[in-house]
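Most newcomers find our protein records easier to grasp once they have seen one. A learned vocabulary of local backbone shapes supplies the integers on the structure line. Here is such a record, shown just as it appears in the course material:
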Amino acid sequence: MGHKLKITGWISIGVMAGALTTVSLQTVARGTLTPLPLEELQQLAAVFGIVKSNYVEPVDDKKLITDAIAGMVAGLDPHSVYLDKKALKDFNEGTTGKFVGVGIEISQEDGLIKVVSPIEGSPAFRAGIKPNDLIIKINDTLVKGLTLSEGVKRMRGEPNTKVLLTILRKSENRTFPVPIVREEIRTQSVRSKVIEPGYAWIRLSQFQERTVEDFARKMEEIYKQEPHLKGLVLDLRNDPGGYLDAAVAISAAFLPANVTVVSANGQLAESKFTYKAAPEYYQRRSGGDPLKHLTDVTKGALKSVPLVVLVNEGSASASEIVAGALQDHKRAKLMGNQTFGKGSVQTAVCLDSGFRMDNCPTAALKLTTSRYYTPSGNSIQAKGIVPDVMVDETAEGNLFAALRTREADLEKHLSNGQSDEKKSSVSDKVREDALKKLEDELKKPLAERKLPEYGSDTDFQLIQAIHQLKGQTVLASKTLVERPEEKKEE
């Protein structure tokens, strides 16, 4: 593999419920220098001068330049973007899975921040914060009225600084303060459990730095509990992507050695590559294979255990690479809903001379440089991967899928490059009906809501996946159909 040391990627999608994302490669795509368009640059300089001298109030030079760069890149496609210092910090936190804070997974309930779960070993975990606790105050600021992101921002900070959370614990009918010292947190991207004897579930919520190691550890725990596993569900629902080499590693855990996992094609030599199911394509700089111990413990059983992969509209980028590879090699049955459709590769470039992306101090560029392809040569860009069996989210149907954004819904999305584009859109009426259903659901007590937590006893799609593994009847959707690529409006 001639360029294996140059390209180590991450993938993410970026436009869904908070974390948006891409496939990015930590190398600079260097081509030959092209002549500068002097006439257009003179026009740009003229606009700069007019704004500086005529705008209603003084404008900082740096702001004008950075806004011009940001506009130039953003006009290309939804995933090409200029990263200033703050955006760069958020970008690094999202892909490494590390941040400084208290260590809780949260949601919102009745205008308050609800603790879904404290991260094991985190300051919040050690302080005794429990699932379902409600945070009503952060330091002296009442949570009521804050957005979830504003609450997160107030709980994060510098290492070794203090934050005071006021907790409402309904189960004990009391309110009490909990002082916590912030520290670096590693998010948990892998969850698992044995559903019933012989059948297990493992969920990847994102492909981060430690996802492969955590996957291997969780699978070892499953096999110690169930050494003769009869079936496994790999859950990639709402997984927005992450590191490319992590996606290749997870695919390699299930596939025969050296088969193709993913390929990419673009203008430059650096943007053309093929990754295969072999350690040299995914092992980190340490040179070690994070899957070797797992293979030894399971005696290679993961290569043949019956496998179902769950996907939905929120499965994007890296998770689509895994799903596409397992589907094309007929290694797994895909179930759920058609995936997001992000099939483009972004190269991440630090604009500070001499710095690497993982240590970039002030500014960077993410630029779309390739489309990627499944092993059979299919581009999923703006189309997604169609499951082998379409399954609704709930027994009542696919209630809220119309509200979810897909790649084809994004303005200036990159075309598929293969198939004829067809116009297909979700009507405003369908979206309005889905929104009303969602609002009605949120008014109900948590236990009565129709969208259960993934992995719970009432997870309809997971139940159907277990039925599939057992050879039992699967309640396939009667209404879901393949959604073609949207026609771009020029």
